[in-house]
Amino acid sequence: MQSEVLIFPDHWKVIQALEHMRSYHTPRFYDVFVVDDERRFLGSIELSTFVKCQEEDLLSEVMTRSVHAIPMDWRQDEITFMFRLYELISAPVIDKDARIIGVITVDDVMRVIEDKVAEDFMHLGGIHASDFHKTVSKTSLGRLNWLLITVIDAVLTSLVIHFFEKVLHFKQGLIVLMPIAAAMGGNSGIQAATVAIRALATKELNTLNSVRFLWKEVSVSCFNGSLLGVGLGGLAFLWFKDIRVALVLGGRYCLICYGQV
């Protein structure tokens, strides 16, 4: 938030505001904000509109009242969502009495978004921005949790494969096709998760449409799983000339896609 902001009373004329800006060092701005005699926020004037106004026009006559002010207790994600939803360039920050205490511009919001994206990206790998300045022991302990989760997941997968070791020994074609099903099943889950996370971030997904969203994702997964399951089953049959291998691979991929949702 920037504490330097252009605020003028509603009874001023455009020429008075211009003279004031010429007389003093004005901060970089996108909008001029208008207040009443008690310094309560009334409206704003975009810079492109302000320069086109007649000098004798009253600010109260040329200002826009249907603007969006930001309460001082809003969180960063709420502010970012409002800027994105209404395509704002700047917005005033007001206290509980509707008095302007600062302004947030699109530049501020972009910096917050960049920091948030970088932070989320690093968290996916179990690292933090402060790791560069930490000691070796603290950095290692911070990353160890994610590595342990990966190890546990790999051990469970190995145990499942070991449980079916005899079956795989007689049907070695299943071993060759295992990476295909695993990779495509993981990709299906990532697609569904990405759509859901984006919908939550943009507030498009809520309690009212959650059932519809879930039904759509289930339908898409069933359709894609069935289509690709038949295709992979046919490929396996042409490759190994064994209908049982084809049925196992096709059915396995269908179940993986269904389960990812």
Automatic annotation (TrEMBL):
Domain spans labelled CBS: 1-52, 60-114
Transmembrane regions listed in the UniProt entry: 144-164, 176-197, 218-240
Organism per entry: Holospora elegans E1
Limits of the SLC41A/MgtE integral membrane domain: 178-251
Name assigned to this protein: Magnesium transporter MgtE
Membrane topology term: Multi-pass membrane protein
Entry-linked Pfam families: CBS (PF00571), MgtE (PF01769)
Cellular component terms (Gene Ontology): membrane
